[in-house]
Amino acid sequence: MSHTDATRAVEAVWRIESARLVAALTRMVGDVGLAEEFAQDALVSALEKWPDEGVPDNPGAWLTTVAKRRMLDRWRRDERFQKRMADLGRDIAGHDGQAEFDAVLEEDYGDDLLKLMFVCCHPVLSTEARVALTLRLLGGLTTEEVARAFLVPESTVAQRVVRAKRTLAARQVPFEVPVGADRDARLASVLEVVYLVFNEGYAATSGGDWIRPELCDEAMRLGRVLTALLPGEREVHGLVALMELHASRFRARVGPGGEPVPLAEQDRTRWDRRLVLRGFRALRHALSADPAEPRGPYALQAAIAAKHAQAAAVEDTDWAGIAGLYAELAAVTRSPVVELNRAVAVSMADGPGPALDIVDSLSEAGVLDGYHLLAAVRGDLLLRLRRPDEAREEFERAADLTLNERERDHLRGRAVSCAG
């Protein structure tokens, strides 16, 4: 096997096995930083040995065995590590402890994986740290890959990961699935991180690409893992439905030159019907049969996306129904961005005049100052009201505010078209 082929094999195995390995090791050593260190040692060993020895028949077990050896080596030479393990009730050098360790690594890891998700997305960490740690430990991405995906220096991502692991250790964040009132808040944090990853791929905040499908793919993979681990959580299914339905539009969202294609101008025959159907299935799990039971924000957003997917053309869309869903979502989230989206739906259902009133109220409140889409939506409404000069100013303002190059070019093009 060539060195290149072996490296690719290691990378593929690591993507599949790393989360399971780190999760099991974290349960054993009680420290996510140490667990990743042992797992990374196994990865380095694979990169060194597999080009010469070939990929083992059971690569996951191979990585587990090496990680176990590294852990035993640390125990033998480090008294502090021995004390830590003793505090956890582990005696990994003894026969019984060795058997226990084997059992930890070989049993079903679903519960451990869920615990690792809750640890990576713990509220004691900043949002940026939660995203970086999740992609690194659960997604198996390298620091370089995370940095490239978010267009930040690799050193910045590395610092976020290191600080996050130190914070978790210093705060003694337990490796557990939270219970009681804390559970809902913690689960909301996990879902928020997954959706942040998806959104950065769906509409990149900066750089030269409008979409980054690899980030969306990773977010959807994590979402599907969550539905398997928490099949009774409606909002988990709602998030997966939302991501599947949005991802179905990828082929139609980008023009031949990489420019954004607005929803109203997309060729809907290019939407991925397989993802649409998967989204519908997930949405059925997210929506309760009881109309009195409140619907969560992800389920409501997925229901809105489903309305778009059900329409063969933009003029066939149930805009009044979408506006009603946005009103329900706004009542749940109290989000000005949701209110801005409601204005767009109202403009299609009732005309641009009532929608402009909503947008102007948001502008006067100052809650979306600096948000480029507020100016972009206002520009579109003004253009439909035959006020092109004012519309041009709004599109220019929106172009100045966005950090994405493709979106900036698109908005400047709209500003120029107002002069015509």
Automatic annotation (TrEMBL):
<dbReference type="InterPro" id="IPR014284">
    <property type="entry name" value="RNA_pol_sigma-70_dom"/>
</dbReference>
<dbReference type="InterPro" id="IPR046531">
    <property type="entry name" value="DUF6596"/>
</dbReference>
<protein>
    <submittedName>
        <fullName>Sigma-70 family RNA polymerase sigma factor</fullName>
    </submittedName>
</protein>
<dbReference type="InterPro" id="IPR036388">
    <property type="entry name" value="WH-like_DNA-bd_sf"/>
</dbReference>
<dbReference type="Pfam" id="PF04542">
    <property type="entry name" value="Sigma70_r2"/>
</dbReference>
<comment type="similarity">
    <text>Belongs to the sigma-70 factor family. ECF subfamily.</text>
</comment>
<keyword id="KW-0731">Sigma factor</keyword>
<feature type="domain" description="RNA polymerase sigma factor 70 region 4 type 2">
    <location>
        <begin position="118"/>
        <end position="168"/>
    </location>
</feature>
<keyword id="KW-0804">Transcription</keyword>
<dbReference type="InterPro" id="IPR013249">
    <property type="entry name" value="RNA_pol_sigma70_r4_t2"/>
</dbReference>
<dbReference type="Pfam" id="PF08281">
    <property type="entry name" value="Sigma70_r4_2"/>
</dbReference>
<feature type="domain" description="RNA polymerase sigma-70 region 2">
    <location>
        <begin position="20"/>
        <end position="80"/>
    </location>
</feature>
<dbReference type="InterPro" id="IPR013324">
    <property type="entry name" value="RNA_pol_sigma_r3/r4-like"/>
</dbReference>
<dbReference type="Pfam" id="PF20239">
    <property type="entry name" value="DUF6596"/>
</dbReference>
<feature type="domain" description="DUF6596">
    <location>
        <begin position="186"/>
        <end position="286"/>
    </location>
</feature>
<dbReference type="InterPro" id="IPR007627">
    <property type="entry name" value="RNA_pol_sigma70_r2"/>
</dbReference>
<dbReference type="InterPro" id="IPR013325">
    <property type="entry name" value="RNA_pol_sigma_r2"/>
</dbReference>
<keyword id="KW-0805">Transcription regulation</keyword>
